[in-house]
Amino acid sequence: MTKLLLVRHGETVDNVNQIMQGQTQGELTINGIEQAEKLAEELAGEPIDAFVSSDLKRSVDTCLILAKPHALPVVQTALLRERDWGGFTGRFIPDLKGETWPDDVESLPDLLARAQRFLDFIRSHYEGKTVLAVGHGIINKAIQAAHLGKEMREIPRMTNAEVRLLDM
Description:
Layout: E1 3-8, H1 13-16, H2 30-43, E2 50-54, H3 57-67, E3 74-77, H4 108-125, E4 130-135, H5 137-148, E5 163-167
Parallel strand pairs: 1-4, 2-3, 2-4
Antiparallel strand pairs: 1-5
Helix pairs in contact: 2-3, 4-5
């Protein structure tokens, strides 16, 4: 059985400032670095065979911290990128309430299809292994929904540096 430890990146400057990050790179706060370091300590003794990350900086930086005690490289993939928020990217989140969604926001069917491609990637490249993957809040919800056959609204929100286990 393949085990997927799905992690959300550490806290970022834009998380604190309530900015819609989407597929921007993002920068971890000092707290975000500390969150990742604490999780790295907790997982240091766990047998993890591979580390995979979104190719966005906030996830890569988190994953590098988590992989360090295991002395393993980090594989980056765009499949784990956050949802593309199109014209909402970079905006103050409270200001978006009630606004019409721009046409360039990644659709839920496209997001869920990308989540399924990520699950297929893990199954095909890491069969029988334990993989830690660092993604983002919404793509991680989509991955869990696709894996569990649920609606995204049924998946609880992940906090920064939270880990969830998916047995595949």
